[in-house]
Structures are given as structure tokens and as C-alpha cells.
Amino acid sequence: MGMKEGELPMKYLGVPLSSRKLFKEDYSLLINKICRKIDSWQAMHLSMGGRAQLIRTSIFGVQNFWCSIFPLPKYVIAEVEKRIRTFMWKGTSEFPYHAKVAWDTLCLPFGEGGLGFKDMLKSVSLWQHKKKDKDPWYWKKLLPVRHLICDRYFIVVGNGRLISFWFDNWGSFASVWTLLVLFRCLV
After folding, report:
1. Which of 1, 3, 106, 138 is the most buried (most CB within 10 A)?
2. pLDDT means per 10 residues in the chain (187 residues)?
3. What is the domain partition of the chain in residue ranges?
4. pTM for the whole thing?
């Protein structure tokens, strides 16, 4: 198929991939990327609304991309949020800063006086969420069927000798190889 075989550790789409648990220095890529983004915006003399929009779209986008690949440790999330708060109030990624409004307030929805930021330290996944009356409609639809998702989503690999990433069916889906062949036929 024209693909090169690589070795771990490596970077893929800007994210470190490794066969071991990532260490603090591995997450410095994320922190540095966010700081570079903030520093590039520093010269623009943005209003508070402009900064809030960049935080919501760009910085949270990078953070969510990393979170979609693996869970971020709390110390990494805390460091990212510290940089975001500094940028919001000071316009740079450098410390110190003096907040004019508490972070918890900024994380409130617009209708409640906040800026709609997501507090990653307090957020929970689908598997941990406890049902509340104020949940959005999609949570109310997902929560009753999450056990069905879990049954199809998790597969026990064991020691890995009897598992084939390419040719085994994962859940109720076809094998990765079959999907690639089908996709290639459609293109």
C-alpha cells in the first residue's frame, strides 16, 4: 500500500505516540504549541471578545484533539488552563496576571453570565456522567443506552498474541482491512 513501517516513539499529526505511558516532557509539546499560538496573537492587540473567541475555537480545539487520542493528566490540563487564563486577562502566555473574574464564572454558559468556556478539570466522560435534570437533550438520549455502547466499544486484548489489528472485527464493525478495501473501491 506504499506505507513505511515506523518505530515508536514517534509523532503522528503532531501528537506523540508511544508504547509506554507519556511523561511530563512529552506533554510539553502541547503546552509549547498553545504558547506559540498565544504569542503569535499577542501583537494583534485583541479585545477581550476576540481573545475569548480564539480561546474557544483554536486553543480548545488543540486541547480537544489531544484529548480525543488519550486522556490528559490533570497537571497538563491545569497548565493549559493557566495559560488560557493568562491570555484572557493579560494578552500573553507569560505570568503573572491578575484575574478580573473567577475561572469558574468564565466557564458558565452565556445565559448565566459566563463566556461558555469548558472547565476540563471538572468535565466528565459519558461513562462517568450522572443523570441531571439540566442535562442537554443529547445526554438524556445517550445515558440510557451507554451500556449498549460499552458492550460494543471495549474489547479485551489480553497478551496481544491472538489479536490482529488489521484483520479482526472490532465490535460489530468489519475489520480495518475490509474497511480500507471498501473505501479504496469507493474512491
Report:
1. 106
2. 72 76 81 84 80 86 77 84 85 74 84 82 68 76 73 62 72 69 60
3. 10-122, 155-186
4. 0.60
